[in-house]
Design a protein that fits this description.
By secondary structure, this protein is α/β, with parallel strands linked by helices. The chain is built from 14 helices and 11 strands. Helix 3 packs parallel to helix 4 and helix 8 packs across helix 14.
């Protein structure tokens, strides 16, 4: 088995610099613990949890693994402070934050010896996260599923610019679903990768079977960016996505778009499996996902692919 050592493996005390994204309705304790048990860093996605449910998932995760794991907290949630407090109270030592300003909670997290990571879509926000005191950032390209940065910067362009601009390690995300993508991200200067869509379609993911099936059936052109007026969202094309595009073309106002989006579209699509009216958040890497694997099998596959890609590079790149 290959060995990979980077600043991220040292920072999180993990075997491989492979991080599972903290996705809503997907990333519960079963998925997070499985990823951590196989040498990566699992994240519990608190974005679809009330504080007490998060507490339950954290405790179950501690029972299922003795390896490091973290919690992802969307900072724009009204109860973000409660989620932060529960995470601290339960002894989690790694927090990934997104959708907001990490400076808001950085002091209390650092007072409790927590490693803080923030998801950013651009160099501008990467620099802000570094200045706020974050230990590392996730640079997420527009290929990623779910909410994306308004500038629509791709992973290939974003990661080397973040690496050149920051003094803290960079984790690459967006469009990465196999070992070739992992090796490519490391070649761009990243010290780790975060993968969402590929882990969302594992056995341990809490996503509905219908959602997993739609991802597996998707081709390279089966995702769409919508809701540009109120925050970019990448999702699999379906009837709801078509309605969103028509609404934007017709120039609907922001409040009308928010009403169309509603508050439960993610749950409807990802957790309940409504293939037509749900919001099926997934990345452009969906076209690379061909089967539902256990996390253990996926890690074996990823490591084999990294080794094969590295060997190929060795053959074509000569001194």
């Amino acid at each position: 088995m290959i060995s990979i050592k980077t600043k991220i493996t040292d920072l999180f005390n993990v075997k491989y610099p492979i991080i599972q994204a903290g996705m809503v309705w997907v990333s519960g304790w079963k998925l997070a613990s499985a990823v951590s048990n196989n040498g990566g860093l699992g994240l519990i996605g608190s974005g679809s949890m009330k504080p007490e449910l998060l507490r339950e998932h954290i405790r179950d995760c501690f029972s299922a693994t003795d390896k490091p794991f973290g919690v992802n907290i969307p900072l724009l949630r009204g109860d973000a402070e409660d989620l932060v407090n529960v995470t601290i109270e339960e002894g989690v030592k790694i927090v990934f934050s997104s959708a907001g300003n990490p400076k808001k909670f950085i002091d209390i997290l650092k007072e409790n010896n927590i490693t803080v990571v923030h998801v950013v879509p651009s160099v501008k926000f990467g620099l802000k996260a570094e200045a706020a005191g974050c230990d590392t950032v996730v640079g997420e390209g527009v290929e990623a599923g779910g909410h994306n940065g308004i500038d629509e910067i791709t992973t290939l362009a974003l990661i080397p610019q973040l690496v050149d601009s920051l003094n803290i390690p960079v984790i690459a995300a967006g469009g990465i679903a196999d070992g070739r993508g992992i090796l490519a991200a490391l070649s761009l200067g990243a010290d780790g990768v975060q993968m969402g869509t590929r882990f969302a379609t594992t056995v341990e993911s809490s996503a509905h079977p219908n959602y997993k099936k739609k991802v597996i059936e998707a081709s390279d052109s089966d995702t769409i960016l919508a809701f540009k007026k109120i925050g970019l969202v990448r999702m699999i094309k379906n009837e709801f996505a078509d309605k969103a595009k028509v609404a934007e073309t017709e120039g609907w106002k922001e409040e009308e778009l928010r009403e169309l989006l509603g508050k439960k579209r993610e749950m409807m699509g990802i957790f309940e499996g409504n293939e037509t009216e749900g919001k099926l958040e997934a990345g452009q890497s969906s076209g690379l996902v061909k089967e539902i694997l256990t996390v253990e099998s996926l890690f074996k596959k990823l490591l084999k692919e990294i080794e094969e890609a590295s060997n190929r590079n060795d053959k074509i790149i000569k001194d």
